[in-house]
Write a structure and sequence with these properties.
The complex is a heterodimer of chains A (528) and B (103).
Chain A lengths: L5 H17 L4 H25 L6 E4 L10 E4 L1 H24 L7 H17 L3 H21 L5 H30 L10 H4 L1 H18 L7 H5 L5 H27 L6 H20 L4 H22 L1 H33 L10 H4 L1 H15 L5 H15 L3 H26 L25 H4 L3 H14 L9 H19 L1 H16 L2 H8 L2
Chain B lengths: L1 H17 L4 H21 L23 H26 L11
Helix pairs in contact in B: 1-2, 2-3
Classes of the chains: A mainly alpha (528), B mainly alpha (103).
């Protein structure tokens, strides 16, 4: 029963997206469909995790063709965990989008749902070509979202994003063609172990892996990521940060473990590439000027951490990598949402224009600092458990260079997050909220406390004067709690994962076991 | 062999165009690259190397064309076409900031 519903995770959001595309009113009904669909998917994802506990593999063959001919949807612990996590993140981001008013734009809701449908399909498919199609289903709405919402540079960002992804898709398609030409099938279960035996298959799958690395943002093919994520709207950037590169990473884990079956020959190169990615991302983040571009470069660094898991392979490495993947998705989305809340209310994300938010927005400061500490890897947040597990794996595999880079890049991450914290949350108040309508006061202000705001320019000063006058009676914070709540929830999730790391590690160890020994996956798909 | 040469020529042209500065030229280059991928996909078919799974009764099945790559190509063409049209539309909107060099 649970297995038969697997294709619905792809179909459900797509149908809901189609419905939302043609209905205009009422707004509350559209919101109910949007949140309801994602909530149902989240519930189903949690059910999947429970159903795959202990190594069960669920398979749904489309059209009731026998195993091996049908295009299967497969769920094991790894995909179940990611379906649940991506559904949670999309739900939280959509709530943020609703509070920030972005869903009043007609196309927001349907495209987010279609995007999620593609993500879920890519996570559950057991077929290489279907993976290509699902990734495209995920990307097509993203093209529209990225160039429709956001700042003045959004069209430029959209062009870079589309051109780059079209190129990556072409490479992916070449890879699929080579695989089909060499083996005669693109069913991942039938391809299991093929690259270990034949060099031709290894080259063909190598092309696919390069395409997936392009989509994941691995250095040196990362340039699109920091040029696009800071330019689009806060909600869209948060959704992308939680979903997009992560699907590529999931596919790398899945394809490498199935088709190469843990082949040791190329892992040395992979470790080297991931070390460069970690160091490069963390180093670049230090020099950036806006909150989201710092986060985007830290994300590249994080991608290095996650893929170090598959580069080390082995039970420790894979479990640590999957744990880090889940942690990173939650924390990064939380940080993007905090940055988004600042941007929605203060109208800028430039570090040199913001300041003193720690006193004015205590809740937001908590959400940000919690997630930032987690990203750096401080206990008791989830980042500590993730990095500790990763370090254990590097030492177990005698990859001491990687262990050093893991620690050094963490220090650099500390430096860049510290810079954001210092200039945005500490120091003098440099900017007042741009939205003065919420509790604007008509009375002319006799101010004496807004000297810093005056130094910016006259317009801001006027707003600031009205604000300070109102502040005497209104609460301390300017960002509405509903706008901060999504980021706080995710920071608390990170704290929860950190405190209960043992529980999630058990699950990721099961996921890693499923990747190490692919026989149960293959048997479940190929059954007669 | 002819497919290999054709794909090679298409890739060469596509890569050359993608390295140009104008967005329309890049879009044309991506189209060529997509066509090259489609040619490779078509060339990758062949029923001789795998067992006919469903229609083994038909005697001439060995000589028949492999239907799977054709389905792949059809899907890929639709996707590439849609994305390229959107890219061209983006190139048109706000084309003033397109960094085309006169040389």
């Amino acid at each position: 029963m649970i297995a038969n519903a697997l294709p619905l995770v792809l179909a459900g959001p797509l149908v809901a997206a189609a419905v939302l595309m043609v209905t205009r009113r009422p707004l509350w009904a559209r919101r109910a469909v949007l949140v309801g669909t994602l909530g149902a998917t989240l519930a189903y994802g949690v059910t999947l995790v429970a159903a795959t506990y202990g190594g069960t593999v669920l398979v749904a063959d489309i059209g009731l063709w026998p195993g091996g001919i049908a295009i299967p949807f497969v769920a094991d612990m790894f995909s179940a965990l990611l379906v649940a996590a991506t559904a949670l993140l999309t739900l939280v981001c959509v709530v943020f989008g609703i509070v920030a008013g972005e869903d009043q734009q007609h196309y927001f809701a349907p495209f987010v749902l279609a995007l999620y449908g593609g993500v879920a399909g890519a996570l559950l498919t057991g077929d290489l070509f279907n993976l290509f199609v699902c990734v495209e289903v995920m990307l097509l709405p993203s093209y529209v979202l990225i160039s429709m919402f956001g700042g003045e540079n959004r069209l430029r960002a959209g062009r870079i994003y589309i051109t780059y992804n079209l190129l990556a898709s072409a490479v992916f398609l070449f890879g699929v063609a080579f695989v089909y030409g060499v083996v005669g099938t693109v069913n991942l279960a039938e391809l299991a172990g093929a690259a270990k035996e034949s060099t031709a298959v290894a080259v063909a799958i190598g092309v696919v892996l390069v395409a997936l690395a392009m989509k994941s943002g691995v250095v040196p093919v990362h340039g699109w990521l920091p040029r696009t994520y800071p330019e689009t709207s806060p909600t869209v950037a948060a959704i992308f940060s939680g979903l997009h590169t992560k699907v590529g990473i999931y596919a790398i884990y899945r394809v490498y473990s199935l088709v190469f079956d843990g082949d040791q020959r190329f892992l040395g190169f992979a470790v080297l590439f991931m070390c460069v990615t970690m160091a490069f991302g963390a180093l670049s983040a230090v020099g950036e000027d806006t909150i989201r571009s710092v986060l985007a470069f830290n994300m590249i660094s994080g991608i290095g951490y996650i893929l170090l898991g598959v580069a080390l392979f082995g039970p420790l490495g894979l479990a640590a990598g999957i744990f880090y993947l889940l942690h990173h998705m939650v924390v990064k989305t939380s940080l993007f949402l905090s940055a988004g809340a600042v941007e929605v209310r203060y109208g800028t994300q430039r570090l040199d224009q913001l300041g003193g938010l720690a006193r004015k927005e205590p809740l937001l400061a908590f959400a940000f600092v919690g997630a930032a500490l987690s990203l750096i890897g401080m206990p008791p947040f989830s980042g500590f458990a993730g990095k500790f597990a990763l370090l254990q794996a590097t030492v177990a595999e005698h990859a001491y260079l990687a262990a050093f880079v893991v620690l050094a890049a963490s220090l650099l991450t500390l430096l860049s997050m510290n810079r954001v914290w210092n200039s945005v949350f500490w120091g003098p108040v440099r900017r007042e909220p741009v939205d003065a309508t919420r509790d604007a006061v008509d009375a002319p202000a006799d101010d004496d406390a807004t000297g810093t705001a005056h130094t910016n320019n006259g317009a801001v000063g006027t707003v600031a004067r009205r604000r300070t006058h109102a502040k005497a009676a209104s609460p301390l914070t300017h960002v509405s709690p509903a706008l901060v709540a999504p980021a706080v929830v995710l920071t608390l999730v990170s704290l929860g994962i950190g405190l209960g790391a043992e529980g999630l590690l058990t699950l990721t160890q099961q996921a890693a076991a499923g990747l190490l020994d692919t026989s149960s996956y293959v048997e479940a798909v190929m059954r007669e | 062999m002819s497919a290999a040469i054709l794909a090679g020529v298409l890739v060469a042209g596509g890569v050359y165009l993608i390295l140009q500065r104008g967005l329309i030229r890049m879009a044309l280059g991506l189209i060529l690259l997509g066509h090259a991928a489609n040619v490779v996909l078509l060339a990758s078919g062949g029923l001789y190397r795998r067992e006919a799974s469903v229609i083994e009764q038909i005697a001439a099945v060995r000589a028949a064309a492999d239907p799977l790559p054709q389905a792949f190509v059809l899907t890929a063409i639709v996707i590439t076409f849609g994305v390229t049209v959107y890219l061209v539309a983006l190139a048109g909107s706000g084309s003033g900031d397109d960094t085309e060099e006169s040389t």
